[in-house]
Amino acid sequence: GGFPLVQPDGTSATPANQEDEEGLGQEVGVVLTYDYTEDVQLGARAGWFFPGKNYSDDSETASQLILNAKVAF
Fold this sequence. Notes:
The chain has strands spanning 5-6, 12-13, 25-35, 40-51, 62-71. Helix content is 0%, strand content 51%. It contains no helices and five strands. The protein starts with a strand and ends with a strand.
């Protein structure tokens, strides 16, 4: 066991002692960049975290997608 942590929504969670780092999960990320012109660049970043055995069986995969554009004047 550990000490309880208060979450932003007011609930509390107690972290488990974890000796097996493999139980934390796996992360995969992808970064794409496209130079449209000399002054315009488009990009995308995607990431997924697959929870390991340290999390409950009903834990869902966390993901994010970030799109960006860069214009130089």
